[in-house]
TrEMBL record:
Residue ranges constituting the Aspartate/ornithine carbamoyltransferase Asp/Orn-binding domain according to the UniProt record: 146-287
Keyword tags: Pyrimidine biosynthesis, Transferase
GO CC annotation terms, alphabetical: cytosol
Assembly mode: Heterododecamer (2C3:3R2) of six catalytic PyrB chains organized as two trimers (C3), and six regulatory PyrI chains organized as three dimers (R2).
Pfam families: OTCace (PF00185), OTCace_N (PF02729)
Protein's UniProt name: Aspartate carbamoyltransferase
Main function: Catalyzes the condensation of carbamoyl phosphate and aspartate to form carbamoyl aspartate and inorganic phosphate, the committed step in the de novo pyrimidine nucleotide biosynthesis pathway.
Family: Belongs to the aspartate/ornithine carbamoyltransferase superfamily. ATCase family.
GO BP, sorted A to Z: 'de novo' pyrimidine nucleobase biosynthetic process; 'de novo' UMP biosynthetic process; amino acid metabolic process
Binding site for carbamoyl phosphate: R49, T50, R99, H126, Q129, A251, P252
Superkingdom, natural source: Bacteria
Enzyme class: transferase
Length: 300
């Protein structure tokens, strides 16, 4: 059984195989053929896309989901992450999908024997988001080598940025960042930093990030429109993008802050395509984790 806590644990060949599996599993439905696997989705931080697309992937594969609500669980009596997960493993869960605010929370869970799929750890990693981003870019361009990808915004606090910078560079993409200096990790070299005006003119992919205010120690954004004009994707900047350039954003989107609201569903935007790809990618990750035989019972 295979955990997935970070894409760093996989080679590019293994990642490519997951993307290929996602393409093959796109339309696969194992309707009514539950194979006895039960998965618990433990979300200690809010989520719409990751939680619901994992649930959709589980339904489409015929896997049972154990309902677990942090708010009404014994976490509120002080039970820790390890004891919670060990309890659910003891009663029969075959795998866990976990999102937690603590970076590298999964290091506490070494005593478990079932796979853990990381659905986001603090500012650390978000491997399934990176996989769906890679699939979206591969579908668009067919390759990664030489592509110019600019990741824009709150790099420092973003697990999506950290996962994507590492894996896109391994695949041969030229990755740049853009955003307020204080939100860019110190170890990112000067030559990889662009202004948003430089970024839009060279990028094949403009990947915008949500400002992670919940990780900013109480700091507030004083004027969202100032942010959009100084660092964000305005309608004027979109017009200066390369003809084939695409816009991505992991969402949720702060409309009118990272991006002009009218661009969220513009022709270049792949934001909803990313979400759609999320289900296929998560099916591939679940199949890998459970070592299911991929025998589509019913294909629609
Ligand atoms: N992109 C993403 O992780 O969205 P959610 O926080 O809604 O899961």
């Amino acid at each position: 059984m295979s955990s997935l806590t970070s894409l760093k644990m996989l080679s590019v060949e293994e990642i490519d195989r997951i993307l290929d599996d996602a393409e093959r599993l796109y339309e696969v439905r194992h309707v009514g053929s539950r194979n006895g696997h039960v998965i618990a989705n433990l979300f200690f931080e809010a989520s719409t896309r990751t939680k619901c697309s994992f649930e959709m992937a589980q339904k489409q594969l015929g896997i049972d989901t154990l309902h677990f609500d942090v708010a009404t669980s014994s976490v509120n009596k002080g039970e820790g992450l390890y004891d919670t997960a060990k309890t659910l493993e003891s009663i029969g869960c075959d795998a866990f999908i976990i999102r937690h605010g603590e970076t590298r929370y999964y290091e506490q869970l070494k005593g478990l024997t079932v796979p853990i799929i990381n659905a986001g750890d603090g500012s650390g990693d978000h491997p399934t988001q990176s996989l769906l981003d890679l699939l979206t870019i591969r579908q668009e361009f067919g390759l990664f080598r030489g592509l110019k990808v600019v990741i824009v915004g709150d790099i420092l606090h973003s697990r999506v940025a950290h996962s994507n910078i590492e894996v896109l560079e391994r695949f041969g993409a030229e990755v740049y960042v853009s955003g307020p200096e204080e939100w860019i990790d110190e170890d990112i070299p000067r030559e990889k930093r662009l202004t948003i005006d430089e970024a839009v003119e060279i990028a094949d992919v403009v990947m915008l990030l949500r400002i992670q205010l919940e990780r900013h120690d109480g700091e507030m954004l004083s004027n969202p429109d100032d942010y959009l004009q100084t660092y964000g994707l305005t309608m004027e900047r979109e017009k200066r993008m390369k003809p084939h350039g695409i816009i991505m954003h992991p969402a949720p989107v702060n409309r009118g802050v990272e991006i002009d609201s009218s661009l969220v569903e513009c022709e270049r935007s792949r934001i909803f395509k990313q979400m759609n790809n999320g289900v296929a990618v998560r099916k591939a990750v679940l199949v890998r984790a459970l070592h299911q035989k991929e025998a589509p019972v019913h294909v629609v």
